[in-house]
Amino acid sequence: MALVKARKIDGAKPAGAAEGGDPLAWLEDADPARRRQAAHALGDRPDAVPALSARLTREEDPSVRETLLTALVRIGTAAAAAALVPHLASEDVGLRNGVIESLQQMPAAVAMPEVAPLLTAADSDLRIFAAQLIGKLPHPDRLDLLAGVIDRDPHVNVCLSAVEALMEGGDPAALPVVERLSGRFPDDPFVAFSVDAARRLFSGA
Description:
Elements: H1 23-26, H2 32-41, H3 49-58, H4 62-75, H5 78-84, H6 93-105, H7 108-115, H8 124-136, H9 142-152, H10 156-169, H11 175-184, H12 189-203
């Protein structure tokens, strides 16, 4: 699954934020415009993370959902990242992609500790999402984490996702790690193809 491009984060507050009342209450308003206004107004309130995450689970309006995600990115705390991570298991592809995009936009030091544990999740799809996302986070632990996937994950598709993530990172130090996958899956043609592609990439051929 390809990861999506980062959205622009608008830090400006909506004019309606000064209308009075607690925007937390507006999150449950029947009017999508009011819910969107509330989410925008709450983007500088770390105490709103639980309410924003809870609303995100139920929100069906795409523009409100986008604003909820943007608010969590603007808050940018470990709690905000932790609130996003469970949505990676959603069956809603749009929500899942929005969460991946949002985690990419957070500081790597904030997002990585919340995403890395998914590399040992029981669900192989979650491990794939985690490997892809970790490959996008400029964090000093990235190579070691993805090397652990290549060395230990039992599912070849998860390992191939880690290879792809390392190739996108472009660090030649990843090549010995990638080459170890051939020893684990010597008869898999997709592994052979990916390892050869990594050799060509990192050798500049």
